[in-house]
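Progress against Task 2.4 (sequence-to-structure conversion) is shown through the following example record, which the project officer requested during the mid-term review.
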Amino acid sequence: MGKKRPLTLSEIAMKENGNPGKLINKEKYSIQELILPDYKAMGIDATNITLMDNNAMKDLAKRWARLEAINHVFMGLSGST
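Structure tokens generated for the chain above:
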């Protein structure tokens, strides 16, 4: 059978991050607008509102970081800057 050839950079990126076309089609890495519910109207106290808002913003920041990391990988593969 012979030796297996080493993976190319694009093959490694595809293996780690998936097909960029599928990611876009599934909108897996799209970032939605952050819409915070009106917790005060729900009767939730201010301390918990702040905590929930902060957690939602942290989650959004993590999704942005993940999206940027994947974008840099695929932009690098395509030769774009």
